[in-house]
Structure formats: structure tokens, C-alpha cells
Specification:
alpha/beta, Maf protein, five-stranded mixed β-sheet
Amino acid sequence: MIAEVAAKRREGVGSYVIGQDKETSENALVERLRRRQETLAISETGVGDAISNRVRKAATNDMVLRYTEQHNTPDELGSNPDLRELAIEVAERISKNAGTNVGIAVISRPQENGDQADSDVGTAVAVYVNGKSSARVYGFGSQAEESRVWTSTWALARAWRMLDEEAE
């Protein structure tokens, strides 16, 4: 009975389902990269190492995670004042420099605490997969643990989806 319901649900949403039961977005991404023999680079600014830690736990001894870097503030990355554009530039740069297929960049203004308007950009997330980029911005900074979880989950899921779209 449960298997039938799961099968029907998968039919409806299809490739948007990343995992089932306790499979995490990082496990799904690592497995997809492993199967395709591809690698990942991650740049995290103002968020600590939230994404790279999640991927390291999923990848164990794999060479899927080829490169990581952490920065304290966006000022350390360049002069582009547009956080979204800067995240796209960084995701592409780290992917190309590290020779990976996927680059993820999260750039957050740590001083933003979430009290500002949603139209204000506190955090930008970009994913670069084999020449294509996708990015989004959030109105919160990296002060709360929830913001680090939210942005890392979106980045991992978006990378997984972009690889899926590429395979279609």
C-alpha cells in the first residue's frame, strides 16, 4: 500500500523528489556525483562550513568534494557590490580553478540578522554546473543556524536538480 502511494506521488512530481525516507540532499548529491564520476567545489562566506561539513559526512572517503574555501565577509571575495552576481562569479571561479563539474557559493553578510526587509539582500547562493549557473538571494544574514541550514539545503538540492536536468 505504501509503495503504491509512493509510486503515484513520484509520478506526479517525478524528478523533483531528491530522496526518500531518511535520504538527505547531501547524500543524494554525493551519490549522483559519484555515479557520474564528477566533483564539487564549495565556497562559504559568512556561514562557516555548513555545506562542506554536510557533504564531507555524506562523502566519507570519496574524492567527490575536491575543494573548499571559507571567508568571513564578502569583502574578501572581490569588489562586486551585487551579492547575487558575486556568488555566481565565485561559484564559476572555484569550479573552473579546482577543475570540478559543480561549484557552490554561499555569500552572507554576517551583520544581517533577519530583521531587515525581504527585499534587502543578506545572503546569496549560487550553483554552477558544467557551464550553467543558478542563483537566489535571501533577505536574511547568517546569524541564525536556521539560515545556514536553509541556504545549504537549497544549494545542495539545486545542484542535484541541475545535474538531473543536464542528464534529461
